Amino acid sequence: MALEHALLVALSERPASGLELTRRFEKSLGFFWHATHQQIYRVLARMEADGWVTVEVVEQEGRPDKRVHTPSATGRRVLADWLATPMPMETFRSELAVKLRGASYGDRAALVRNLRDARADHALRLATYEQMEREQFPDPTGLEPGVRDRWLVLRGGIRLERFWIDWITEYLQAHEMETS
Amino acid sequence: MALEHALLVALSERPASGLELTRRFEKSLGFFWHATHQQIYRVLARMEADGWVTVEVVEQEGRPDKRVHTPSATGRRVLADWLATPMPMETFRSELAVKLRGASYGDRAALVRNLRDARADHALRLATYEQMEREQFPDPTGLEPGVRDRWLVLRGGIRLERFWIDWITEYLQAHEMETS
DNA sequence: ACCATCATGTAACTTGTTACATGATTAC
DNA sequence: GTAATCATGTAACAAGTTACATGATGGT
């Protein structure tokens, strides 16, 4: 009850085949939603069966045909309805949090090494996002609504990476204070 | 491949029955991990079958017996091994992000109302967490390692709520600029 | 010849969600 | 007597993960 809607958003922006959607999910929308091609194909098939999307088979030169999906009138209504429903409180799951909490029951030094790695990963991702912001949204004032929404979601990605980095840093500092 | 470990952490802090675990997950650990009692009972049964925990049936007055779970030597080793393994990059899912991104395809005014509600919810939760910090950790210097870990996870909860509030606020401000 | 890419899928499995069931005790 | 709490579960289903399959084209 959610991947469907994420796919409808993506297909509203631009119709796409399963594989194209998969790739688009690895970027932009993928800051906050991840899905494998297997999942996407399965859900697309269901959406087609339910009449939420129409499919056009597009022949290509030197490549297999692709099935391009476009939201139908029904699909557009489903999406609009969903957008207007109240949001459930998000329930985040973080393995990292569980590990921080359980540090006493294992090798704390190993955990600290892994934390440094995790922080480096997030720093890298943050740098990528910030570069995307500079390149794609050099001047965020006066953007068209749809483009502004994309910018604001990217802003969320940036904020989320900063959250991770700051939190891990706080943990590492508290740890260093003890061992120094 | 994760709830098991979260349960092992909780049971290492203090042995518990299924229902007690469920309640503990609604608090503290629950900032970053949520599980229903059905899930917990199922996983506990598997952990018992695999010899990760031992179970003691405790009779109670005027109440049904309860089955108290304690990590076994095997369970403690499993937990220690897991704590030392590198963290996979966390993949967060946010329905809110999808809705922000898709705002153009629905009623933007309704979305804005829902966003205000969502922000109020997060503000409430932030207030709860901050009160917990004041009451349980009035002086965070010189805490014992295990207690400090609990404090730092609470800090993460606080930081996460602030992330939500700040992001939603940024979105609402960008929206107001346009409509004013 | 061999590997990577494009494009679509199937199958088996693990997790997570929702709804229901039982049976005792305490509070109003 | 009615509802809430304590405590443990079952069953059906939805969602997500992992591994494998197919068959063509293009590059080295």
Automatic annotation (TrEMBL), chains A, B:
<dbReference type="Pfam" id="PF10400">
    <property type="entry name" value="Vir_act_alpha_C"/>
</dbReference>
<feature type="domain" description="Transcription regulator PadR N-terminal">
    <location>
        <begin position="7"/>
        <end position="80"/>
    </location>
</feature>
<dbReference type="InterPro" id="IPR036388">
    <property type="entry name" value="WH-like_DNA-bd_sf"/>
</dbReference>
<feature type="domain" description="Transcription regulator PadR C-terminal">
    <location>
        <begin position="93"/>
        <end position="174"/>
    </location>
</feature>
<dbReference type="Pfam" id="PF03551">
    <property type="entry name" value="PadR"/>
</dbReference>
<dbReference type="InterPro" id="IPR018309">
    <property type="entry name" value="Tscrpt_reg_PadR_C"/>
</dbReference>
<dbReference type="InterPro" id="IPR005149">
    <property type="entry name" value="Tscrpt_reg_PadR_N"/>
</dbReference>
<protein>
    <submittedName>
        <fullName>PadR family transcriptional regulator</fullName>
    </submittedName>
</protein>
<dbReference type="InterPro" id="IPR036390">
    <property type="entry name" value="WH_DNA-bd_sf"/>
</dbReference>
